[in-house]
């Protein structure tokens, strides 16, 4: 339960960065950003990619906690991501590897989801490949993995997580 509180808190921090991150990263380009909290001096490291289908996949280290978040950046997609359920299935696949279906936490009115197993998801991406396909609700997105390992390594390192 303690992890769940941190995951939701960290994911909520991630949402504040999401709209700006979409503009910064560009579509289908992995990028990362660092910022420092003006009050606590805590480092916030975010890596991610915006998909043309209107969602972003973000990995973030905040207050020593690592989380993956899917968030909509187009209004039509945000509406599809809104759910009354506490969790939703998220399916993902790298290249021709078997698909993985996980349960992610919904973040209510924020039209976003947070992974309960962000580290294993990130490690799978770090192994390499050409593309990642992920699906939530009826939104299927395909993003390239070129540059993903380098960018995702930054929030992992900030949280002292080693592959």
> Strand percentage, roughly?
35-45%
Between the first and last Cα atoms, what is the distance in angstroms?
25 Å
- CATH class descriptor: Mainly Beta
The CATH topology assignment is: Immunoglobulin-like
Count of separate DSSP helical elements: 4
- The backbone outline, from C-alpha atoms, is globular
Query: Residue share in helices?
Result: 25-40%
Low-confidence parts, pLDDT < 50 over ≥5 residues?
1-7
Provide the spatial order of strands within the biggest beta sheet: 1-2-3-4-7-6-5-8-9
Rg, nearest Å: 14 Å
Please describe the biggest sheet, giving its number of strands, its sense, and whether it closes into a barrel. 9 strands, antiparallel
What value does the average pLDDT take? 86
Number of strands: 9
Structural class of the secondary elements? Answer: alpha+beta
- State the CATH architecture: Sandwich
SSE run: HEEEEHEEEHEEH
The structural domain count equals 1
Keywords: Signal
Signal peptide: 1-22
Outline the secondary-structure elements:
Blueprint: H1 2-25, E1 31-36, E2 43-50, E3 55-62, E4 65-72, H2 75-81, E5 87-94, E6 100-106, E7 112-115, H3 118-126, E8 131-136, E9 139-144, H4 148-158
Helix pairs in contact: 3-4
Characterization of this structure:
This protein is globular. The N terminus is likely disordered. α3 packs antiparallel against α4. The protein has a nine-stranded antiparallel sheet, with helices on both faces. It has 163 residues and is an alpha+beta fold. A hairpin with a 5-residue loop joins β6 and β7. It contains four helices and nine strands; from the N terminus they run αββββαβββαββα. The protein has one domain: Immunoglobulin-like (Sandwich). The two termini are 25 Å apart. Keywords: Signal.
């Amino acid at each position: 339960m303690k992890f769940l509180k941190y995951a939701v808190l960290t994911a909520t921090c991630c949402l504040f960065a999401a709209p700006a991150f979409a503009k910064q990263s560009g579509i289908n380009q992995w990028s990362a950003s660092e910022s420092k909290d003006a009050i606590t001096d805590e480092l916030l490291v975010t890596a991610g990619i915006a998909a043309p289908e209107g969602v972003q996949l973000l990995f973030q280290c905040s207050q020593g906690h690592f989380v993956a978040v899917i968030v909509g950046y187009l209004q039509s997609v945000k509406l599809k991501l809104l759910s009354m359920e506490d969790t939703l299935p998220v399916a993902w696949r790298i290249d021709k590897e078997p698909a993985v279906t996980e349960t992610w936490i919904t973040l209510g009115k924020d039209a976003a989801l947070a992974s309960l197993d962000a580290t294993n998801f990130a490690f799978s991406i770090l192994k390499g490949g050409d593309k990642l396909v992920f699906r939530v609700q009826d939104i299927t997105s395909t993003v390239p993995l070129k540059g993903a390992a380098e960018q995702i390594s930054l929030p992992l390192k900030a949280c002292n997580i080693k592959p």
